[in-house]
Amino acid sequence: MKFKTKINNLNWDKIILIILLLSGAFLRFYNLNWDQGNMFHPDERNIANAVTKISFFKQLNPDFFAYGGFSIYLIRATGDVLVRITNNPVWIHDWGHINLIARFYSALYSTITILFLYHLARKVFNERVALISAFFFTFSVSSIQTSHLGITENFLTLTVVLISLLSLNIFQKPSLKNYIICAIVTGIAIAAKTTAISFLIFPATAFLINLVLYKKDFSKKILMFLFYLILSLCIFSIFSPYTFLSWNKFLESMRYESGVALGTLPVPYTLQFTNTSSYLFQFINLFWQLGPITLILPLGLIFVFIKLIKNKDFKLLILLSFPVIYFLYVGMWHTKFIRFMMPVLPFLTIFASYFLYVVIKRTKIAGKFLLCLFALTTIFWAFAFFSVYTREQTRISASKWIYKNIPSGSKILGEHWDDGLPVSLKNYSPAQYQIKQLTIYDADNLDKIDYYSNELSSADYIVINSRRLYGTLIHLDKKYPTTSKYYKLLFNGNLGYKKVAEFTSYPSIFGITINDDSSEETFQVYDHPKVIIFKNTQRLIYDDIKNQF
Q1: Which of 139, 290, 348, 506 is 20 to 30 A from 132, comparing alpha carbons?
Q2: What counts of helices (H) and strands (E) characterise the chain?
């Protein structure tokens, strides 16, 4: 009887939450060294390089401002501890080892976010919505993918959820203690990446609503909010001091980053966004990031708005403030990297979960059917994508094939603005080949035809590392008429090159493969790109190739 009583008294919500945390941790921490230390993400390389420049407390200037100092200092500090423990300096000098530390933290941040997201949804709605939200975030593919990259997106996602929770506390009780805690988190978030300044929308909204609704202590509330802003700035300065100490370099970096984002500074790696539709492009890519629940996101958002208006529940206005404003602003940018939507994903899962909760309340059978349908399809997509990390990375597989099948001394053409192949492997080095990168992004003109004809007639192989270039340029026949035709001719076999190998690692499960070639480029090209190798079998001469154009 006592045993049965204990079973009945168990808090099943907590048990489910623990299961979700363990599941999330497994999906996020599994095989963090999936690239065997090669680091195919440029931001990972930049961060690792910045970490090697730090030496506490002699040299603290990372000389890199696309990201703030907090993450760089944390990784370096962790590396120093590991050096003391292992007596091995690779943790502060070798990029691959440094990146493993960064990926560990990235996976940890995402796992912790599950817990805080649960508390946020419970605070605004109830435990049912909280559990459903935690479930969908646990199995969100973008969170799993970003956990396998040593970048700051998961930290930003964690801190924005924390700031939203703390802002609700400020709304309910605008005490100095609540403002101090929120300021610490805000300052550290901005110190990780300057774009986190947008997270101020949460506390600002909470402050304004409280000020309007409860007009007592007017001056005191304003002073506390100003104190919050000043303290946030101070915390930011402590953890990213060289933002100010190298102010001109910081501004230069910010001008570059904002120019790239807004499209005022054209760069080759944003050509994929030519002719893409604002908002629609991001919404379509949410299917890759979150899976099937993207279908009900608009309905969830509408239901939350209705509840806000009907019940005058201002907690909902605070919850909506950041994701709505952020999506409306960032969604209109020219550059639409899939990672830009990471900070809003937790809130989107809450909106979708609330919709399902309402449907269940109104029609139990239909609601539970929908919940099961979206839960199963989300798990299906999550584990299908997770399979990418259970297989050898395609660039490494391609490199092994190259060393085995392409004779030393062969001339291999690669593509600039992409990672070169083959990568270095045990007992093998790219130095055994004549490797040249085709400057494909250079402007198309008559000289470009001569350039292609000369290089192709003298090479033995062409290695296409990913769809980064051909996936975009083949469609830009007005801006790149020669290059567009080059790719069409190459794939059709008209340039004398035959495809001899192709390496793919599409998400798959139970024998079902999901081709994600239509996703935003960066969703695929870092961890599971398609690699294609062509061999010069016909040995066409310069004139024969030129005549094809």
Answers
A1: 506
A2: 24, 7
